[in-house]
What we know:
The protein is an alpha+beta fold. The chain has helices at residues 2-9, 13-16, 20-41, 65-75, 134-169, 175-208; strands at 53-54, 57-58, 87-97, 100-103, 109-114, 121-122, 127-131, 210-212, 217-222, 229-230, 246-249, 254-261, 272-278, 286-293, 303-310, 322-332.
Amino acid sequence: MDADKLRALEINPAAKERPRGAVWIIFLGVLVLSAVAAYFAWPKPGDDRRVLRGKTGGLTAGQSAGSSTAAINANSSVAVDPKRAGVVLTVSGYIINRERIELSPRFLGLVKWIGVRKGDTVTNGQVLVLLDDAEQQAHVKETEGRVTSARTALEKATLDYQRMKKLIASNIETRQNEDDYRLRVESAKALLHEAEGALEMARAHLDWTVIRSTIDGVVLEKLVDAGELVTPQSFGGARGPSTALVAIADPKDLQVEIDLNEADLAKVSRRQKCRVSPEAYPDRAYDGYVAEIAPEANRQKGTLQVKVQILHPDQYLTPELSAKVDFLAGGDSQGK
């Protein structure tokens, strides 16, 4: 009974053998797949050529990679932005007036009249402010009187000298008296010159009470009102008299002020051509050139101040607004 059970548990030796045909099929399949992969992975002689299709047709398979690159720039649908062509550096800055002029009084005075407001257009020589001139008018009259008195004294000394010369010619008076009267004439002339100089100074002070524009431009700020006291020198503190009357600038003389990183300094040179685009109107562009490169850098910031002169600015350019500057490769600008 036990022997029958043991025989039942035994494995038939024929069942232990695996089918050899299936193993060979798997091995052969792996070999074929490896050969196909190696074939496609192996570099071919024509792999350095490409066929490109563009707007004007295709390129032949015989063209090299270099000519293909040129064809991409000329014919490919991936076009280069013409606005970026030739740009070596792009930096942002702020639009400024090249010259901001603040008109100040030359002496302590009271504003009697001011005839402009912020934003008004002014011309060279236009009267903007009148200061109280009562003291200057009185000084002019005083010095005019001194001139009249000195002129009269000179006439009297001249007449006396002429009489003395006649007496000397008649041997009535001595030569010493002639010298005395001649010196009196010279002294009278000197006093007249002194009085005339004082009169010119008094008239100049009177003219200083009339504040005129020194350029054609626009009023940026109106800094005083009628009735305010103004002075050419600040006494300190926030409540003292104003030292300026109005600020004006020429809107046709604008620049862009840039803090250039020292790492980009080699890309910028004086009179280099530039293109300026205000951030408020990015679709507008203006020609310009590098007008000024500061002779000294900012050590803390690691920057150097550069000013780009804008050629032919218009009403779209507003001082103190930001603008983008493209520095262009090529020759110097011909602008002034």
